[in-house]
Amino acid sequence: MTASTGRLRMAEPVALAALAIDAAIGWPPALYARIGHPVGLFARLIGGCERRLNRAQWYASVRRAAGIATLVLLLGATGGLAWAIEQAVRAYLGKGAWPVFALLAAPGLAQRSLQDHVRPVARALLVGDIPAARRAVAMIVGRDTARLDEPGIVRAAIESLAESFCDGIAAPLFWLLVAGLPGLWVYKALNTADSLIGHREPRWRAFGWAAARTDDLANLVPARISGVVICLVAGRGWATMRRDARRHASPNAGWPEAAMAGALDLRLGGPIGYDGVMHLKPWIGAGQTAARAADIERGLIVYRRACLALWVIAGGVAWLL
Fold first, then answer.
1. Tens digit of pLDDT for each residue in 137-147?
2. Angle subtended at Cα 236 by Cα 235 and Cα 241, rounded to the nearest 5 degrees
3. Residues 250, 285 contacting (CB under 8 angstroms)
4. Cα 73 to chain center, whole Å?
5. d(C-alpha 226, C-alpha 229), whole Å
6. d(CA 150, CA 126)
7. For a Cys staple, 66 with which of 53, 86, 87, 224, CB 3.0–4.6 Å?
């Protein structure tokens, strides 16, 4: 048995157990308050490099090279540390190492966290508290939320739910199955870099180029798996996904978003404000635009079923191998 096969065989029970741990307890608030979250370490490293190496007076080519160096440092340090921990635990515990690996992998998944952040948006809308709903949705989206009406709030929440199903669950799980703990945590570091610096605004365009392009590659397969899983559990959405997935500015985010739009018979996307500037983004889906709080609840039902489908996939792969 090759080393890669050994890692794959060990990763499958780890993946299923990690999903169960994340769904049961997530990342407890008390633990977050005491030590933060591992992603916060990535953010501090990226932020420190960005402040020192992303100088406005430098040529774009120099800033791009600095961004590449930052990404190499981030991914190298993350992958090296995860690999060293994996090897040490395996050497000490042997075949009994997989529960420890599951505990170490669970914080890289976001099933419980995503639901816990989206549900308050629906709850605020259901009691007519638009300001509270805006504050809640501002926690999960980067667009301007101060003037969003109820349909705009609902679309923002559902779009984030769909996209984060890929970024926060399906993609980390995919890389855990493919490359063990190093695969999962390298992906999380990369995705954090993309969310912080992988933007098209002048400040980050050159420095964050490598993070954005590498994240696109890392999500190429998981995004399409996410869309397929959403359509499968919803029993609909296939035509919308095939037609509209490529209308999204991202080469990947459109797949789960279009699948969710079709599953819920909604139109997502459309005009969106960022930093006071309105962007006329294309509509995704052919359903209604007058989304309501109940549509978030319907989206969460689809989301939970999609998460359960990932459990079945992880368990099925473990059983087959």
1. 999 998 888 88
2. 135
3. no
4. 22
5. 5
6. 10
7. 53
